[in-house]
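Standup notes
- HV: blocked on the assembly model, inputs below
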Amino acid sequence: MKDASYSAIYESLNARRLSPQQVAMTFVPQDQFTVLTKNRHSVLLGPRGSGKTTLLKMLQPQAIEYWEGDQGETHRGAIDYTGVFISTDVSWGAQREALGDGKLDADVHEQLGRSLFVTHVLRALVATMEYRTSKPTGKEIAHFRRLSVPLSRQWAIVEALAARWLLRPKIATYTALKQSLVFRMADIRKLAQDLVGQADAKERVRADENAFLRYHFLDEVICAITLFNDDVDEPEARWALCFDELEIAPDWVSDQLFRSIRSADDRILIKMAMSPVSTRANPAIFEHVTGPSTLNDFDTIRLWYTDKVEPLKFCQDLWNAVVRRRGHASLTPHDVLDHSQTELHSTNRKSTKSAYGVSSDMMGSFERLSRSDASFSAYLKKENITLDKLGELTPEKFAATIRKVAPIVVFRDYFRASDDQKRSLRTRKILSVYSGADSVFAITEGNPRWFLLIVNAMLDKAEQSDWKISKEDQAEILSNVAGRFLAMLKTLPVPPATVGTLKLSLIGVIDRVGLHFERKILIDDFNPDPEGTFSPSLMTTPRALASLLDKAVNAGALIYLPGQRDELILRTVAGKRFRLSYLLLPLFRVPIRKGRSVSLTRILKLPENLPRTQIPLIAESDL
Amino acid sequence: MNRPVRASEIAEEVSAISYDLIIGAVGYEHRATHIAKLSNLSAIGKKLAFAFREPRGGHFAANFAWYCENGFDVTSSSDSEFAAWLHEVVLPKCLSVGKIDIRVAVDISCFNRYRLACLVEFLTRPELDCISETDFWYSIAKFDPPSEREELNTLVGPINSRFGGWFVDSDRPTVGILGLGYEEGKALGAVEHLEISDTWCWLPDSPVLEYLPEVVKANHVLLSEAPTLKHVKYSVSRPAETLTRLIALASNLSTENNVMILPFGPKMFSLISILVSLVHPAIAVWRVSAGENLAPVDRIASGFEVGLRVGWQKQR
């Protein structure tokens, strides 16, 4: 039974909308969080929903104090700086862009936009100072960097900051100072409107009374923390400025932040969250990230997973947290979701071979396919495999010839009609082949947003039937979520790319890639190592297509698979390797695996087909 | 800037009202001339029509010809030139009427949302204190099933820069008020893209009865997730009532949230959303648009016309 607080917090699915305390109450740390908490600059990379905002928010004292359990205690001991979370999102970015209703001189507009951003940063900083010096409520799990500062000293700091920032708070408290900064932002907006059509706009921006328009945010942050630190007798205390969604912030922000990494005051840590591809392509960013010295300047933390095994532990942790909140801590994923038809992860040789026993589902798939698919039968013959003698295979041979191809076999058996029917596909609309704990976890990509959406929906359903959910119901939920993801991708404002005679949308590219892999798995002759990943060619990828692919990566539709020597922050997708998000696979009837890489150019030469993504996702089975 | 201070449904037929100025849009839809044809054109002093550069086709040529033949001053330009057209052409026409209180009719049926926003913004100009009321007319289209063709969006953003809203505290949760249409998944996609945490779904109850079930079907995922308490059915035929209800909801929500209205569906709801943002400037009105990639879909007038009369408070 869910309680009201559970509903409000868990179902929000979006850390941006939760208070730091709420984020902390439901926080399940990924391994990457430990890297982020280090006393170093960090760049947190990941597509939307991967947890960037959550991790940054958790660095604030307002969150750390509410983090229960051993991990909370450990991190409270390990983090020796004060985190300041600086939010941004699409709507705030657009409102900043709309200053002056689009009618201002470009220089004036930029000046006002910068000032707005600086004020926003200072407001976040003052809010954190306010928190550290405020009286605890008693609800905190433990205190973190709290200070007891006499009011008279607080007044002095606030008055000094107000004087410097040309503010006039009604009273000399952090709260009033914070409010003054909020009013300042409204004043900037009003000034923008007043300056529209004014010939002296530039002069007015430069006037002494508007000196605040020319502040440099890092300089002002350093002034503020110097005052604060000195007053509380922590002169070397460090502050971490945590910037979210850097790709939405103006170019100059990321430029200044990267420059600051090398030159800033030692008391400032910079922690940035951004998408894997820098769509603004600010050359300054890449000037900073190349070169051997940059290896020591900051940690680049990857928040996506390249394969289905990497996120399993995190998914298990998320599961445990979810079921615990529902009051059923003992429920395991296999209790509720059962096992997947395609065994994804097993290190137990004995249990692996028993999964291929005579009357097992897996063996059934192998046997049916050997009868219906001549190319698979030929494969078995070529490898000298007799299905009723699998026990005689060496572990290495078993792994290389049977376990490796099992997902492909299951899918071919499930979806293919027999060779007699000329390699058509069964129109199976219920994709129960994706059900089961391991498959479901893999499909979520370890993305907390999608994980919570999918798992909560499945648990809601399971709760009605003794905590078990059928394969068909799992498949319906996965299809609905895939459809939801697709709806979001269709909304993205991405101009189509012309490739040869093709005019391709983002969805169109995804369609073609998915259909290509579907063909390789299901229609072409059986191949034990079919294509499953792709690479846009360095030489033949038009800019418009690269731009479209950038957006697909940042949205999480395409997953970047960096090689050992590849940089994580991408300046271009060309020459890099990608796969489709596992969340989209149910739309294309492709098993959850990586596979060999193929050139994207070759994929896009496919003839026109009905786009898979336009086939309605239907709930009823036609079996 | 003038502000809307009163609104009412127009009880009279459009033909019974004598206007000093009528503004229409020359588009590719059949219904582009419907309101103008119903009007008492011979009694209208100034007649202006704005033609789209793109997309054309469909019934555009016939509409263009009709407007020209019936005494309309027709100008063509792109979206980006529209605001300038209003200032350079429409403003002098309004001022040249020479009356203190001129009656203006605007047929919003074929204006896109951006131009609608520009029009409303224009009407709030302090120079236009000669306009105390504006009648906005909307011709409800006959039902046609939703197009299966995929629209490629090129814009997700404020309906225009004037109505982008102002979120004083970006840390506050964003609540979306969605005027639903029958394009499948469009509202859901916008909610996902903008990461809106809480949604109120406004369903259009149209006198053309076939629409509502299609809207429900196209948005079934979104509707299943939002509590039924947050499903609001509004009458397309009663825009003044809808405006009042939307102002009430939006102002209530804005005390603790950042509020964003996404007006899919009937154009009248878009107009109402813009008027709400005029009353509460912090509220954002956003659009999802295919822009010039929009595939032309013809719409024929159903015979149901809706009028919203807005009274302006003049502020110099």
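- HV (later): unblocked. Chain B has nine helices and 13 strands. Residues 79-96 of chain B form the longest helix (18 residues).
- Next: hand off to the docking folks.
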